[in-house]
């Protein structure tokens, strides 16, 4: 008997084909957003040239900066500025240390300093109230009210410390980016200097080229270029670079640059030695990180791999024992 499709089967097949066609049409329409064309983006950056590519990289990486915190604002917030001015927080706190800390985090100007000082005070005032509400409403311990208030008062110290912890986290991320890209920047500096460029031109060229790899390093080198052009003492410009970054490799390079200009030694030879040392240091750091992986993997293996292995090995024996002869 030949196979014949009934009317319900035909309807079901049509519905399934229509659904598949709809899903396929949606995927085709949304595919450019689902799978981005990385090659086209690279070609566009190359066509724009080295001057525009770092700017686009900075724009992409800094697109979320405005929403991250008021520390990144250009102008001081009026509320924060009023708090700092009326309470004289700049005089009561270590303004110089706070400014140096913010510069190491890449936050320059008066707005980040005002936001940092005001946020420490606001957090120190708000955290005890938040801690008291959490303890009384959520934890609900069987303790007298004065003891709960004393426990909540610890939140003042925590709130005063949290903005500084946030800035230290920014510094750590920034130094990690600088540390990875610094040997490459030294190689580029060496090439520029040996091609006959001056130190200002070399720093400017490296700042343009290194922006796609490290936005932070491009900013620091651009600022150093400006300081070399405007400061009367070139040594101060180099020392400022080492102070802002806080990295030993950068400080060693700064000392080499200062001695090269002071005693007239070969800048190319100095950069060659420093670049080799920086690459060796980066390789040693990578080897140290790789050597620390086995101890770190011990706990995950004990918690996740060994129980499954024991279950696979012991399950057949347990089934045989339970099932009997």
From TrEMBL:
Its main location: membrane. Keywords: Cell membrane, Membrane, Transmembrane, Transmembrane helix. It is found in: Cell membrane. It is a multi-pass membrane protein. Residues 186-313 form the Type II secretion system protein GspF domain. Signal peptide: none annotated. It holds the Pfam family T2SSF. The chain crosses the membrane at residues 12-34, 113-135, 147-167, 297-319. PANTHER family: INTEGRAL MEMBRANE PROTEIN-RELATED (PTHR35007), PILUS ASSEMBLE PROTEIN (PTHR35007:SF2). This is Type II secretion system protein. It comes from Sinisalibacter lacisalsi.
